[in-house]
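Pasting two entries for a bug report.
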Amino acid sequence: MEKELISDLAKNLAASVRSVMPDGLRSAQLDLEQNFRAILRSSLENMNLVTREEFDIQRRVLERTREKLTRLEADLAALQGRSDDT
């Protein structure tokens, strides 16, 4: 998916540049696409981004942790309620 996104972005950038290029330079479109693709890939790698899959995994871990914390808080409140009764 990421490679497709980068390729699509590179093609779109090259196409937008091609539309304003003189006819004699239009043969450079493939070179432009490859350069844009390399620049985009390098820039995205330097951003230290996580994939959607990694994000979703961490979101599920956080949800389970919140559920566990809620249960523990309820258990603690119940135990405190019992100790107050004695």
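Entry 2 (this is the one that rendered wrong in the viewer):
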Amino acid sequence: MPKEELRLYRSCMNRKGLVRFKVRHLETDLHVQARKDLASEVSRWVIEARTAIEGYARRHPGFIESLVPLGDDPLAPPVVREMLLASRCCGVGPMASVAGAIAHQVGRRILERIPGSEVFVENGGDLFVHADSPFKVAVFAGTSPFSGKIAITVPGETGTFGICTSSGTVGHSRSFGRADAVTVVSRSASLSDAAATAIGNLISTARDISMGLDAMQGMEGVLGGLIIKGSRIGAWGGIELVPLA
């Protein structure tokens, strides 16, 4: 996501009663909201997660480059096993879920330190959320007229969610499609990240939106999502689209 759009995205994230802080390490750039400032702990957890992924990749050539799912590995570090599982659910390579997996790992660790806290961990537009009341998440979609004008809500739901976006026209995410935005909601940021990538690969024109929604419905664990291509939008599942005030 371009820096100017990322700043706009983060300016919309202001949950009352939570402390906001940022953690950066190499390509990982987190914006976190929780009841306490755990920046030093989060920095350590990010390094641990990245070290686990990088170490596994060195021992398993092809892990980084694979565009297809790889087999489960019971001996893999937890963050890598999450990536392997998400990739098998969605038919993509394990690195398609890396940003979501790191966000999810950090979010879980925060909850272990502060049980019951609301937690928002954003990693380049991919979100881990643990909320005790409804929330909304802004959607940015490049030059689409919907960009910055709508938000997703998960009405009446609480608990842990992953809300991740893939785009073939915005940012640095690898996509074989041309969707302006594919946003997916599930209970796992790893799964949502992989699913958004897989569905985004299917979208070349607005005519592909229906096919993308069909694929979304067929992914186990996905609760809902939306697809934006130009001036067309499609949505499915247990979400609502609301104007972004």
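Dev reply: Rendering is fixed now. As a check, the viewer should reflect this: Residues 39-59 form the longest helix (21 residues).
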